[in-house]
Design brief:
By secondary structure, this protein is α/β, with parallel strands linked by helices. The protein contains 8 helices and 8 strands. The N and C termini lie far apart (47 Å). The relative contact order is 0.21.
Amino acid sequence: MEKILYLIRHCEADGNLNRIFHGNYDSDITENGKHQLERLRRRFADIHLDALYSSPLRRAVKTAEAVGRDKNLEINICPGLIEINGGSLENRPWKDFPLLSENEAYNWVHLPAKVKMPGGETMQELYDRIWYAVLSIVNSEAGAKTIAAVSHGCAIRAFLCRALGYGIDRLNDVGWCDNTAVSKIVFADDGKCDVVYFNDASHLDSDLSTIEKQNWFKNSENYFNE
């Protein structure tokens, strides 16, 4: 049976707003994030879902709650959907990254496939982990045709890279998504997948967007300057 997966990034959280690395750090959502969730809820109001999954972090769980509101679905927590482990960068400003490791900070922007977070995960580990986590979800839901899963920006980017048929060396060919952005992937019976659309945040007005207000998104050279 063909299956549809909606892969969703969590709403805006404190780390997004304040440019704090919050990979595995459990930061709470912002007021703007709450407004984003209302738009996301409306987007999914008329979309039937058979199953709902989330990363264990509360910014993801609260996003899943909004998606599943009025659908009477239990949220299944999947640790494999969690964001990259930032090690010693967790809960520290992005501008500290070059101070911890100038080489890894350079790689993050220019050669992400080579990234090894100081004391944390490598990008290759994330690339593999998120892929197999999503496949496990899809394969475990035998009777479910349509599934939603809430994850995180870097993790979703790594998944899409592979789903689009790219090796990890082409990670920079996959753009960053806004908070609450949605990607739709169709899985065939033989396990192959087709990315119908990705990183779509058309439910957000520009005033609700997170990344449109941030200089790092407009110019990667500003990544560690905010």
